[in-house]
Write a structure and sequence with these properties.
Elements (H helix, E strand, L loop, with lengths): L1 E2 L13 H4 L2 H31 L5 H42 L6 H7 L2 H12 L9 H16 L3 H9 L4 E4 L15 E4 L3 H25 L3 E2 H23 L1
Antiparallel strand pairs: 1-4, 2-3
C-alpha cells in the first residue's frame, strides 16, 4: 500500500534521476578505505615494525625511508579520497542540472570545472538546501582544502586549514642547533594527516550521501509502506540525537 506521508524532520527536494545512482557512492568510498587505503598503510606499518625489531643497524636507515614513504602515502590517499568525493558530487549536480535547468546548457560543464565555492552555490540553487545543512559539511570542506594542500603544497589552502581548522594542525617547537656552526629550526605548525583522518573523511562522505538518500526517500510522493516505516524509524533516531545534543 502506498502512502503520502512526508516527515517534517527530513527536508524534501525535487527528485532527479541522478539521485537514484548515489547509493553506489557510499560503497565506493567504503571499499576504497578498506581495500586500498588501510590495506596499503597496513603493509607499510608491518614493514616498519619488522625494521624496528631488527638488530641490524643498517635497517635504521631503511626505517627512515619507509617512514617518509608512509607520510607520502597518507598524502596521496587523502588526495585520492578527495578526488573520488569531488567527482561524485560534481557528477551528481551535473545530472541534476541537465534535468532541472535544461535552459542553462552550460551549467553542467561549469560544474565539472569551476571552484568549490561555485559548486556549493549551485548545490543550493539546484537542491534548495545549503551545503551547510549536511552534518558532515565542515569535514567535507576540510577534505577539499586538504586535497588542494596535498596537490599543491603550501598556499591558500594550507593557510585556511591553519586558520579555520586549528585542531587539525600540530605545533612543532623550535629546536636548537645540533652542532656548532649549524642553525636550529624555528617553531612551526605542521599539517599532519593520519590514518584515522582517512576514516573520518570517508565517514563524512558516507554521511553526506546517506542524508541525501533520506531526503530522496522523503521526497517520493507515493511511498511504499516499508519506506514510510523506515522514515518513521529515522525520525526517532533524529529526535534521540537532538535530545543527546541538548543533554551533552
Amino acid at each position: 500500500m502506498a502512502e503520502n506521508y512526508i516527515s517534517p524532520m527530513i527536508p524534501v527536494w525535487v527528485n532527479c534521476r541522478a539521485d537514484i545512482g548515489t547509493y553506489a557512492h557510499t560503497r565506493t568510498v567504503e571499499m576504497f578505505l578498506e581495500s586500498v587505503a588501510l590495506s596499503s598503510l597496513g603493509a607499510i606499518d608491518a614493514r616498519m615494525a619488522n625494521l624496528r625489531s631488527s638488530d641490524d643497524p643498517v635497517n635504521l636507515f631503511d626505517l627512515s625511508d619507509v617512514e617518509e614513504l608512509r607520510v607520502a602515502t597518507l598524502s596521496a590517499l587523502c588526495l585520492s579520497l578527495q578526488a573520488i568525493w569531488e567527482q561524485q558530487l560534481r557528477g551528481y549536480l551535473s545530472g541534476c542540472a541537465e534535468e532541472l535547468v535544461a535552459d542553462r546548457p552550460g551549467l553542467a560543464e561549469k560544474l565539472k570545472n569551476n571552484d568549490w565555492d561555485f559548486v556549493k552555490r549551485q548545490f543550493f540553487e539546484l537542491r534548495g538546501l545549503p551545503f551547510a545543512h549536511f552534518k558532515a559539511h565542515r569535514d567535507l570542506d576540510l577534505l577539499q582544502l586538504l586535497g588542494n594542500y596535498c596537490r599543491h603544497g603550501e598556499g591558500r589552502a594550507s593557510k585556511a586549514i591553519r586558520s579555520d581548522f586549528p585542531e587539525f594542525c600540530t605545533h612543532v617547537p623550535a629546536s636548537s642547533a645540533l652542532f656548532p656552526g649549524a642553525t636550529g629550526t624555528p617553531e612551526r605548525v605542521d599539517i599532519v594527516i593520519r590514518a584515522d583522518d582517512l576514516k573520518r573523511f570517508a565517514g563524512a562522505i558516507v554521511s553526506f550521501w546517506t542524508e541525501a538518500e533520506w531526503i530522496y526517500n522523503n521526497s517520493i510522493n507515493r511511498k511504499h509502506e516499508s519506506t514510510v516505516k523506515a522514515i518513521r524509524k529515522r525520525e526517532e533516531e533524529l529526535k534521540l540525537a537532538e535530545i543527546n545534543t541538548i543533554l551533552s
